[in-house]
Amino acid sequence: MLSKRMATVFFLTLCLTLGGGAMAMDFSEAPEFAEMVDQGELPPVEDRLPVADDVYVLETVEEIGTYGGVARTATIRPEGWGDDTMLLPVYGSLVHPLPGGDGVEPHLAKDFEISDDTTTFTFYLREGLKWSDGEPYTSEDIMFWYEHILLNEDLTPVIGIDWLSEGEVVEITAPDDYTLQFEFVAPEPFFVYSLVHNEITNFPKHYMKQFHPDFVDQDELEQDAADAGFDAWYEYFWDQAQSQGIQPFREALPTMGPYVLDSATADRRVYSRNPYFWKVDEAGNQLPYFDGLECEIVVDREILNGMIIAGQLDFAGFETDIRNFPMFRQYEEEGNFDTVLWESGMGSEVIYMLNQTIEDPNLREVFQDVRFRRALSLAIDRQEISDVIYHGQAEPRQYTVLDDSQFYKEEYAEAYTDYDPERAEELLDEMGLDETDSEGFRIGPEGDRILFTIEFYDTEVPRGPNVELVAEYWREIGIDARIRSISGELQGERAPANLIEATVWHGDKASDILFPVGNNLVIPKAPGWDESMWPAWGLWFNTDGEEGEEPPEHIKELRGWYDEMVMEPDEDRRLELGDKILRSQAENLWVIGTVGRAPYPLIVSKDMGNVPDWGLWCWDTLWSCTRGPEQFFFRQ
Fold first, then answer.
1. Is 6's pLDDT higher than 50?
2. Is the dihedral of CA 205, 206, 212, 216 positive or negative?
3. pLDDT of 2 above 90
4. Helices 553-565, 571-588: crossing angle, 10 deg rounding
5. How confident is the model over 307-333, as pLDDT tens digits?
6. In whole angstroms, what is the distance from residue 98 CA to residue 627 CA?
7. How many CB atoms lie within 10 A of CB 251?
8. For residue range 335-378, what is the model confidence (pLDDT) as tens digits?
9. What's the rounded mean pLDDT across residues 504-519?
10. Most CB within 10 Å of its CB: which of 99, 118, 365, 419?
11. Residue 297 · residue 41 · CB < 8 Å
């Protein structure tokens, strides 16, 4: 049975959401659309929105906005996460995270029901939703994803864990155009949370079927793919469906987002307002307020920072850095912007992963000894990290869930966070690492110096200066830790291949949304660029023992707690299992945390309104997407 707490999150939220209260509203639209309606080029706004009672009404942050203006953004990623794809548009999932990361609310779905045994989930779409080209958005679009993408072996060679229950693929049916039913063979109490970050809603059947052999002649499709420079039809398909979140990277691809992509070149993406967007403000004005977006693609962060201080950007967040906070503040008046501090939303800002399945037997033996990981943690001066990098605004913190999580315990956040290099050296001596070479570095069990390289991709949070400080702390206790900055592509190749000795990542997946369903930072799941503590063990679990390396019993037990938790219908037992996982992290330090509760700077034009003063800036809550970015506007 659904727990009382989860019922409160799921169902009382429905009563508080304004999305079902538009029935008595009069709707308005942007002047350009009103003119097009008058000229017969667009249907009336009432016909472009969902039926009145299903329109999503977005709660006002400060005031009802005004239409107009093009918001200027920038990115260093030609095709990837950036301020145009995630900061100003929204993520178009069936459900949406609450701003604090402690639950979800309906989004494209106006309502949903969960069976008492949490095996059946029924979603009711907003009636009258439309793609950006005016075509109806119905359950058929999600059924297209299910039947022709998820269940197609060419497009989905391996079905993800979100869609499996006891090895069986979820069964999805559509009783009518606006109802979807997901049925699992066993309880899946956290399934709705997993939908937050899934993109199953992003495939318009009427458009994408022209690239799928179930709907067109495969020989002709293969020829089209070859003409476009692809080796197979499915590569061509994915190219035509390319997007980040809800925002398309192909001009012809319809979207459910607030903006459509008008043009994309090597150095710029340009968007305009979606005439069929399905949200309005509390006065009935169809959103978004901006006429459009422009995103300049630049080479690096230095150029982007120069654009910020020169007043050339209206909003920046994805590549801003707390280290530059004093500089941002210095140029606020000259650049006509404010620096708004949100919370980073990380369980710990930068976390360290020692590869316990690395091929090097010397390092493997040392890394697998919990005393070594504890020693490294005690050698870190976290207050200095806070002072040097975060201007004293971060707190020493081990990696665990956020303070507001139902799973949180203070003792786990404080585990081995005291700065105690003497105790660290004692632990290393206890391990038998009490001999040093001529340079003062400790000798490992095979007689060689303990030397490893921290390879890292420097992005999203200030990793570089953190790694420089931590590597020096570790050298001071006789551990020769070296650093190497690498590209994201190289990180993505080397980490899953079990080639990285040590690395860092940001400690997200710490909310009640992602800790239960997506946390691979403390649970061995599948090797990836952000799971480098045990790639060979993760691969073993991910392939049912066919590949990788069989883990020891205590790791099997850890994974067993997770496997039971995600299927356990009783809340008390789920909390107990979650506590076991987090206690194991606190005791074993599968990852080593540094600091948490850190501020994150956003750059906001002084002319812009309705930008909240607070938010969590993290993957768990989809960065700005829970804070109503489609109602940001320029004051006249």
1. no
2. positive
3. no
4. 150
5. 999 999 999 998 898 999 999 999 999
6. 9
7. 12
8. 999 999 999 999 999 999 999 999 999 999 999 999 999 999 99
9. 94
10. 118
11. no
Q: Is 87 exposed, middle or buried (0-12, 13-18, 19+ CB in 10 A)?
A: buried
Where are the CATH 3.10.105.10 domain residues in the chain? 348-596
More confident residue, 6 or 271: 271
Q: Regarding beta strands 451-456 and 480-485, do their DSSP bridges make them parallel or antiparallel, or are they unpaired?
A: parallel
Q: How long, in residues, is the chain?
A: 636
Spatial neighbors of 251 by CB under 8 A, at least 6 apart, are: 261, 262, 263, 264
**Degrees, nearest 5: CA angle 388-592-466:** 25
CB-based contact 101:114 (threshold 8 Å): no
User: What interhelical angle do 463-476 and 382-390 show, nearest 10?
Assistant: 150
Q: Where are the beta strands (DSSP E) in 400-525?
A: 451-456, 480-485, 502-507
The mean per-residue pLDDT over the stretch 571-597 comes to: 97
* Structure confidence at residue 23 as a pLDDT band (50, 70, 90): low
Ranges of H-type helices in 477-570: 488-494, 515-518, 535-542, 553-565
- Residue 80 is which amino acid? G
- Comparing CA positions, the residue from 105, 132, 95 lying closest to residue 257 is 132
pLDDT-based confidence at residue 91 (cuts at 50, 70, 90): confident
User: Does residue 1 have a pLDDT over 70?
Assistant: no
CATH 3.40.190.10 placement within the chain? 4-203+241-341+600-634
- Quote the tokens at residue 396: 């020493």
Q: What secondary structure, in 3-state letters, does 592-606 show? A: ECCEECCEEEEEEEC
Pick the range with the lowest mean pLDDT from 20-34, 310-324, 541-555, 579-593: 20-34
CA distances from 498 to 64, 227, 537, 559 (A): 53, 37, 10, 19
| Amino acid in position 209 | K
Name the CATH superfamily, with its identifier, for domain 348-596: Dipeptide-binding Protein; Domain 3 (3.10.105.10)
**Sign of the dihedral through C-alpha 556, 558, 559, 565:** positive
Sorting pLDDT into bands at 50, 70 and 90, what band is 22?
A: low
